[in-house]
Write a structure and sequence with these properties.
It contains 4 helices and no strands. It has 101 residues and is mainly alpha-helical. The model has no long low-confidence stretch (mean pLDDT 75).
């Protein structure tokens, strides 16, 4: 019976999902390394623009500029995100509830 369970398509699919789920777990060191890589990428992308805007490279104001430009890009690309109670920004204004509701 154990052989049937291990070779059954249902259990094979479940085992693949389980292996992938366990592989997705990351240690705190791996998450920290990923966060560091994200920061370095943001500095490489937005750092030259902040330098051209007049901020001295590697200063606190320059770092703030890099973070602000990154946040501005994320907001433009991904939108403001869900609002109060998970509803989007257009829920009450022209979304599901019209002004003529």
């Amino acid at each position: 019976m154990l052989t049937w369970i291990c070779t059954s398509p249902r259990w094979a699919g479940l085992s693949v999902v389980l292996v992938l789920a366990l592989a997705a777990c990351a240690t705190p060191q791996e998450r920290a390394a990923q966060a560091q890589a994200d920061v370095e990428q943001m500095m490489a992308i937005y750092g030259p623009a902040c330098t051209r805007l007049g901020y001295a490279a590697q200063s606190d104001a320059w770092r703030g500029c890099v973070i602000n430009l990154g946040a501005k890009y994320d907001l433009q690309r991904y939108g403001p995100g869900p609002g109060y109670y998970g509803w989007g920004p257009g829920y009450w204004r022209g979304g599901w509830w019209d002004p003529y509701w």
